[in-house]
Design goal:
The protein is mainly β and 114 residues long. Helix content is 0%, strand content 61%. The protein has strands spanning 2-7, 10-13, 18-26, 31-39, 46-52, 55-58, 66-71, 76-81, 90-98, 101-104, 108-113. Strands 2, 4, 5, 6, 9, 10 and 11 form a 7-stranded mixed β-sheet that branches. It has a 4-stranded antiparallel β-sheet with strand order 1-3-8-7, with no helix packed on it.
């Protein structure tokens, strides 16, 4: 089992920045990927950014504004979010994949005011 604990998030004005952090604990060996997903009201949970081995993937809408970083040794993953827009508002979930199983954090709210 892997447990994920998120921190960061909150309320920010458009154009501002926030940083999300996620730490994995428990049986963290062989975590294949770590990343962040978001879920806006009435919408499905979607990928924001993830690190898979040496590869990073970003949603098109956040490219150039968000940066994901993972410390495999510490089992952490951070998401630096710059130039935030109101449409970035959502609940952000940390994700880890281990042996094909998805683990999720409890979610953290990000609200961007216009």
């Amino acid at each position: 089992q892997v447990q994920l604990v998120e921190s960061g998030g909150g309320l920010v004005r458009a154009g501002g920045s926030l940083r999300l952090s996620c730490a994995a604990s428990g049986r963290t060996f062989s975590i294949h990927a770590m990343g962040w997903y978001w879920e806006a009201p009435g919408k499905e949970r979607e990928l924001v950014a993830r690190v898979v081995g040496d590869r990073t993937d970003y949603a098109d809408s956040v490219k150039g504004r968000f940066t994901i970083s993972r410390d495999a040794a510490k089992s952490t993953v951070d998401l630096q979010m710059n130039s935030l827009k109101p449409e970035d508002s959502a609940v952000y979930y940390c994700n880890a994949v281990q042996f094909g199983v998805n683990y999720w954090g409890q979610g953290t709210q990000v609200t961007v005011s216009s």
